[in-house]
Amino acid sequence: MDTCEIYINRKSLGSDLYCAVKTGLKCSEKINSAKSLSDYLLAITSPFKIMLYVSDDDSVNTDADDLISAIREASVTNNYIDVKLVKDEFVNIIDDKDRLTSFAEPRSVAHKTGHRHPTVHIWIVRKIDMEIYILLQKRSHNKAQHPDCFDVSSAGHVSAGDEYRTSALRELSEELGLYAEPKQLEFIGMRKSDYSDNDVHDNELSAVYIYRQPIETEKLRLQTEEVSQVSWIDIDECLTLIKNPKFKHCLYKDELLMIKKAVR
Fold first, then answer.
1. Any idea of the CA torsion for 169, 192, 104, 173, to the nearest 10 degrees?
2. What are the phi and psi torsion angles at 56 (to 5°)?
3. Count of domains forming the chain
């Protein structure tokens, strides 16, 4: 059975959408409308499977809607076609010179291909006397990667077309119910990470921010499917604790040292 992957990003314009469809189908035919796509699919006369990835945002895009409908309707009319629809966050891919490109693919695909993509890390910090404390989140037990592990205060992917700082503000509000101002996020550097585990190859370039505003942890509204709890820890104690194999975490020494350098 022939298979293909089609990526429909709802933030894309018409010509980009048609190009994505043609690239996925690996065809040279003129496809510039839902009608021409439908004609192409209805002419298929051998088993053909389509993995249809659609971005999970709420952007209004009638061209995207028309293409999605054409593909789904073709699978009903033409028994040779099998379509699996997957809604996923789309991320822009970063090239080998660490430049953000316009090419976007589903996050789950990027985690299989190992293509580098952008993320944000936001560290909530406070200083008492000469001691630096950081807020750790504990990842939900139901997370596919690193369940029940201590992690960055808040983190997430940069959706295709979005900016680092905008994404950082979004993650704080979604994961912790914390609404920050752009000027309250202090950028302290970029960090690369490349993690592999079975069929996951997560290759990230992260913008790292610190947030110094006072917070009351009991007033945070945790996104329970992402975060099970939060807790403060002295950064030096954390640097020691991550050496202990019994401490479940996904923290990195170099990133903690970035924080120490910025807060001192």
1. -10
2. -90, 15
3. 2
Q: Quick check: helix, strand or coil at residue 177?
A: coil
Cβ count within 10 A of residue 197: 9
Q: What is the mean pLDDT of residues 215-242?
A: 96
Q: CATH number for the domain including 45?
A: 3.30.370.10
Length of the chain: 264
249, 146: one domain: yes
* CA dist., res. 228 & res. 91, Å (int): 26
Q: Of 88, 106, 133, which closes a domain?
A: 88
φ, ψ at 38 (rounded to 5°): -60, -45
SS3 label, residue 260: helix
Q: Which domain holds residue 48?
A: 2-88
CA 232, chain centre distance (Å): 26
What are the residues whose beta carbons fall under 8 Å from the beta carbon of 136, sequence distance 6 or more? 150, 151, 152, 153, 230, 231, 232, 233, 238, 251
pLDDT, tens digit, 9 for 90 and up, residues 122-180: 999 999 998 999 999 999 999 888 899 999 999 999 999 999 999 999 999 999 999 99
Are 62 and 97 part of one and the same domain? no
Using CA atoms, how far apart are residues 83 and 91, in angstroms rounded to an integer?
23
In terms of C-beta density within 10 A (0-12 exposed, 13-18 middle, 19 or more buried), how is residue 161 classed? middle
Is residue 60 located within the same domain as residue 115?
A: no
Using CA atoms, how far apart are residues 29 and 241, in angstroms rounded to an integer? 59
Residues 244, 141, single domain; the answer is: yes
> In terms of domains, do 108 and 54 share one?
no
pTM recorded for the entire structure: 0.91
